[in-house]
Amino acid sequence: MANFTAYTLESAPDQSKPALNSLAEIFGMVPNMPARMAGSPRLLTALVSVFNQAHGGNFNEQQMQVLLLTNAVTNGSAWPVAFHSFLGLKEGLSEADVQAIRERRLPWDPKLAALSRLARTLIEKRGRIDEHDIAAFTEAGFDQALVLDVVLVVAASTMTNYTASVTQPPLEELFEPHEWKV
Fold it and tell me: Does CATH place domain 61-157+170-178 in 3.40.228.10?
């Protein structure tokens, strides 16, 4: 595997610095995956923009972490699984629900299960979901329009999941307890 540069706030291309600064403010550091993504200022800037849109939407942070963790597991991307396991627990997801998603099972909570199921189905079916998939989501109490917000989160996750799979960033010590193998 190629050795991708891990940029810092100081060493990053000028066009990547605003996005890296934004991430550093959110996380209190520049995580290893976006540090490698900074080699493509357009990708990093697009990621931050899409994530700002997704996080400003109708899902709360627990629901967002269910989506992001489900997407990482479904895409088989180890760094994001560890990262979103950590963040999910930090946002109050139960250890049992985080573990279930990591094992490709559904969370216990019916609404979180519907959210996870839809995200996984969107990825597995490459967006070609059917009325049954949408009905299972809306019957759990979600508005049909939120299906499109799930598409937005899947799009954002795809950027991080693929980048992490390509660049193979090491896990930060903070995320090592949540290491995950494909």
Answer: no
